[in-house]
Model the fold of this input.
Amino acid sequence: MTKFIIITGGVMSGLGKGVVTSSLGKLLKSKGFSVSAIKIDPYLNCDAGTMNPFEHGEVFVLKDGTEVDLDLGNYERFLDTELQGIDNITTGKVYRSVIEKERAGEYLGKTVQIIPHITDEINRRIWEVADDTGVDIVLIEMGGTVGDIESMPFLEASRQLHMEVGEEKNNSLFIHTTLIPVLEVVGEQKTKPTQHSVKALREIGIEPDIIVGRSENKLEKSTKQKISLFCDVPEEAVISSPNADSIYRVPLILDDEGLTERVMERLDLDELLEEKEDTSIDPSHKMENWKNFLHGFENPTSEIDIALVGKYCDLEDAYVSHEQALNHCRAKTKTKINIEYVESEELEEENGPEELLGDVDGILIPGGFGDRGTEGKINAINYARVNELPILAICLGFQLSVVEFARNVLGYKEAHSFEFDEDTPDPVIDLLPKQRGIDKMGGTMRLGAENILVEEGTLAHNIYGKTEISERHRHRYEVNLDYKEEMESNGMKFSGYSLNEKRMEILEIEDHPFFIGSQFHPEFQSKSMKPAPLFLAFVNTILGQKEDPSDED
Ligand code: GLN
Done:
């Protein structure tokens, strides 16, 4: 029997509910339980694929190709697991299924309503995850804030789920994450917003079992007592979640605060552990290893500067998987990695590349869409190639590396990607044949993990140490094979390609300390304790150059 933990948010968004969910998952895994996580997004989009990163942060891609909310990336990285499309439930997905069923006549004769039809469909989807994975515990993170119109059907569904699995049988519990602000003039932690948001939960029949209070500092004893009294939870069930230096410290903080103990007790998890046949704990889930990881992360012995050349640099969450992949490298190599966000458009100014990239140790070009800033990215790539600066160019970065090479090495001055110039005489990057004729935008790109062959004797092979790898994709355009031979005979090697050898996946420049481009997104598979190989090799090359200054020029 699967147990459910439902995590809601109160007062305002952006409180780090996702980090609380991931951390709790981590802690439960360290005790020997199998855990999966569901993110509920109460928006009408069927998936996050069509959302602008400015609006919603990065779009994360799962192994099966589903485009999802970035929180699922955090779950995968923390829990060292691979999730599936069914783990992201959106209002769009739910309504679409119900409306399709209605059109198919499955509710014949009935008035189709939010309760019970929408709520049943939500719970059907939650059970689908429980049944499919067979895990001990499913964590359900409710997006949005309690009180929003959008999240009402999901809260109602979770209330029903709680009833269904048996309240008295300790099979589900509610954790409410809320904000405890401090009023500067009086310096006192204020609990009123929390009281109101718990009241809103109660009005819909949900009694939180645990309250996690996000605050600048730890909650005072008196604050906990007050929350306990007004929100009707035991004092030990009020957990502090103060600001932390890094998200990786949060599992330890919450554990110290008694969250694991409380959840274990409330869900009778000791009993479940006794019943379990296999209680072996994978080393990657042991807290000892997490502490080692954190120690590496918090005690750097060297420092490097990397320019991330993007176009959504103002929004913190737009490149979260890249940042996290670099954080994983930081812990592994004990290197403080300073990320300098460079707006690609600024590199289109005269002397822009020299001024903005002159002092960095390496350049990272993430993926992207749309024309804005592409010339600036090409300038950054040119700067890295000519000045032998280590560069990792991902997806659009990979494609623009081909464009830069065609223009400046092969001399095809007007070469471009067909995405940005349909009239170019040299479309060195062209539309994937399967993409021709597709006019719908949602979920229609080449998406998800595919196997890739890596050629022996290349830098890529050196990095991966094997001839076949699997990485995740999200793109519509690819290298035009008509130019491949000429590129290769001029120094750009395609060292990784699809199994049928028709799609170029990795490129490298032979006479360069580290020039790697990948059509796939290595950042999506980087895990806390297992950094993505391309990122790690990129960082290690820079470190090697720093240690041996004679290499630098
Ligand atoms: N816009 C490019 C394409 O669709 C690159 C996509 C990306 O960087 N994710 O192929």
Q: What stands out?
A: DSSP finds 19 helices and 23 strands in the chain. The domain at 3-271 is CATH 3.40.50.300 (Rossmann fold). The pocket of glutamine is lined by residues 367-369, 395-396, 419, 474-477 (CB under 6 Å). The chain has two domains: 3-271, 300-431+477-552.
